[in-house]
Design brief:
The chain is α/β, with parallel strands linked by helices and 245 residues long. The protein has a single domain, classed as Rossmann fold (3-Layer(aba) Sandwich). It contains eight helices and ten strands. The strands form two sheets. The chain has a six-stranded mixed β-sheet, sandwiched between helices. Helix 4 packs across helix 5 and helix 5 runs parallel beside helix 6. It is globular. The relative contact order is 0.20. It binds adenosine-5'-triphosphate and magnesium ion. Magnesium ion (MG) binds next to helix 1.
Amino acid sequence: MINMQNIQKIYRTEHVETHALSGFNLNIGSGEFVSLMGPSGSGKTTLLNVAGLLDAFDGGSYILDGEDVSRLNDRQMSRIRNEKIGFIFQSFNLIPDLNVFDNVDVPLRYRGLAAGARRERIEEALEIVGLTSRISHYPAQLSGGQQQRVAVARAVVGTPKLILADEPTGNLDSAMANEIMDLLEKINDLGTTVVIVTHDPELATRSPRQIYLLDGRLVDLEKDERPAPLYNPVENGTADNGMSA
Ligand SMILES: Nc1ncnc2c1ncn2[C@@H]1O[C@H](COP(=O)(O)OP(=O)(O)OP(=O)(O)O)[C@@H](O)[C@H]1O
Ligand SMILES: [Mg+2]
């Protein structure tokens, strides 16, 4: 699903050059469920944004679902994003003026689907996340966990092959976080590839594969080999890891 070779992303500002992704290979197969961990500033969001075609990369190659996405223009990238990828963010990113139904409808608007077909899909997605009874509520009328479930429904409604979730449980208590993880598992069971960024090692252990970023470098270890203290997000979480030149 994701095949990156020597992938590089460099942020340049006036004074510093940050190698946010400093040239690594990453292969994530179709149907995998992968947790991405690493200290703050290690490049997790950058990796997700590059993987999701929200951000361009500066070197290396990236094959997404068999398609070389290195040289696509903006329109081609939006098309692939809309067709193949569902995003979930820490802050839910729902549109406050739209009710639950219309929020979930957003990704479908760009497709040439008839209203009836859209309704069917939206209802199906809301059923998956257990929010059928909240279909006409507005985001402000929902709990945080429910809002995130709407965001999950919005991510899956277009039946993407890949779900990218950037700390989707970061604003939720542990019970709600586990519910979101249950949902992602369920979606993964239906065949969708899932990559989730999390700072919570316990949540991460629920996924079969965990990968780590450290200063823009990828560490992909089997569970038994993992040098736990090095990647303890509590210890390393706020440290400026000196990756900026
Ligand atoms: N737009 C930008 N311009 C310049 N530097 C950036 C930009 N976005 C990110 N960076 C830098 O790239 C590095 C990686 O950032 P990124 O947001 O990917 O980290 P992260 O692992 O997601 O961190 P967190 O856990 O805090 O969300 C950081 O050093 C950050 O300062
Ligand atoms: Mg981040």
